[in-house]
Amino acid sequence: MERIEGARQCYDWGSTTAIPDFLGRQGDGGPWAELWLGAHPCGTARLGDGTTLTTFIDSAPDLVLGEDVVRRFGPQLPFLLKVIAPAQALSLQVHPSLSQAAEGYEAEEAAGIALEDPRRNFRDTNHKPEMVLALEPFEAVAGFRAPRRAAEVLAGLESPLARRMRRTLRLNPTRFGIRQAFTDLVSAETRPGPHEVAALVEEIAARLKAGASPSLRVDTNAVEMARTFPADPGVVAALLLNPVTLNPGEALFVPAGCVHAYISGLGVEIMASSDNVLRAGLTRKHVDIPRMLACVDYVAAPPVRPAPEYLSRATRAYYAPVDDFELMVTTVVPEDGRIQVPGRGPRILLGVEGRTLVTTPAGQLSLERGQSVFVTAQERTLAVEGAGSLVQADVP
Fold it and tell me: Which of 128, 98, 206, 216 is nearest to 162 (CA)?
């Protein structure tokens, strides 16, 4: 069991205070968008002596990860745990499937695009299904609404762009109509101009102020996004998506192909260990619309919000339909004494509240809010006591 220090990611959409406060540190005025707790090459955690978690794993993968994990995923940690703190909408994006990631990576390698090149879409060959667990109220949009619901959001808006979108959905109230409306918004040949986007946002802001909104969350999200990206068609594209509000303890799963954007809040995010992101808008980073559109799933469906499964009074699990990761939360009080925590293989523990004492056959470590530890597969059993809560990421 080793204490680890996460890798900070300073994307411009990040909060300047949420993650420093979570870590019990003073902010430096810059954005703390994400804290990566894993072994991804774009940001690997470090042990107390400065060794990277990647180097630690490479030293003895069968012992650190376990033979089962190495056999299934190779000598690498299959998941990446993050703390994420958007203060404004991050990019409207989608993640590829395994086959799409492998194909895209090979194509960009063959084209000679360096991994650090900002034009690079595929930085590895892995898919990137992900799940976010809210620590504080968390806002997002995820997945397409039913065409008739999207049309209802546009009802009463008379700007040319709103009428055009409404007509598309009315003539083809299927996933093909949604695909046409979304493609028209983000493609270079058909995307609306800044004045068209502004006119539609102005209409939305007016009805929001008048209390006439058919969906308060949808309209609020659009107005907030437009503050940062006033001319971006991604603001309008978000009208086609499901609004999601997570209260603390609630989760959202985002599969491959699901168009989504996180808007605000503080959460713990777990995903397959990948940094493959294809963006449609709401960003200053590289946007590759043809590649992004090729990965999108246009089937309308409600957001996937995994309900916790209580494994004991102390531990609840959030299961996702993937083999790369699972997430558990354990909450203990002194009267519980020492409680066994389910799980196996390599684990990362993150303290989210109070103070706990973690025990494995290798020893004991205390864990306070914002602190994290890596537990090897050979330690097998793990128990917790004290007064607090911790998040555990492991492999099913």
Answer: 206
Rounded to whole angstroms, how far apart are CA atoms 23 and 7? 13
- What pTM did the predictor assign? 0.95
Question: Is 275 in contact with 130 (CB distance < 8 Å)?
Answer: no
Q: Which two tokens stand for residue 304?
A: 């996937």
- Which three-class secondary structure state does DSSP give residue 353? strand
Q: Rounded to whole angstroms, how far apart are CA atoms 391 and 84?
A: 14
DSSP 8-state code for residue 115: T
Radius of gyration of the chain (CA): 22
User: SS3 of 58, please?
Assistant: helix
CA distances in angstroms from 66 to 61, 379, 382, 395, listed in the order given: 7, 10, 16, 11
CB atoms < 10 A from the CB of 117, how many? 12
Q: Which residues pair with 268 in a beta bridge?
A: 83, 133
Confidence of residue 16 (pLDDT cuts 50, 70, 90): very high
119 is catalytic: no
Contact criterion met (CB below 8 Å) for 33 and 13:
yes
Over range 158-183, report the average pLDDT: 96
The packing angle between helices 194-209 and 216-228, to 10°, is 140
**How far is Cα 224 from Cα 213, in angstroms, rounded to an integer?**
15
Q: Which of 191, 279, 291, 369 is catalytic?
A: 279
Do β-strands 267-272 and 130-134 pair in parallel, antiparallel, or remain unpaired? antiparallel
Beta strands 241-246; 138-144: pairing state: antiparallel
**Cα 389 to Cα 68, 353, 377, 383, distances in angstroms:** 29, 5, 22, 13
Q: Count of CB atoms within 10 A of residue 221's CB?
A: 25
Phi-psi region of 34 (alpha: psi -120 to 50; beta: other; left: phi over 0): beta
Establish how many alpha carbons lie within 13 A of residue 148's alpha carbon, considering only the half-sphere containing its beta carbon.
Answer: 0
Distance CA 70, CA 313 (A): 32
**d(C-alpha 87, C-alpha 283), whole Å:** 14
Please, is 146 exposed, middle or buried when counting C-beta atoms within 10 Å of its C-beta (0-12, 13-18, 19+)?
A: middle
Predicted confidence (pLDDT) per residue in 216-263, tens digit? 999 999 999 999 999 899 999 999 999 999 999 999 999 999 999 999
Give φ, ψ of 379 to 5 degrees.
Answer: -80, -20
Q: Please state, in angstroms and rounded to a whole number, the distance separating the CA atoms of residues 21 and 39.
A: 24
Structure tokens at 134: 């809210």
pLDDT in tens, 309-341: 999 999 999 999 999 999 999 999 999 999 999
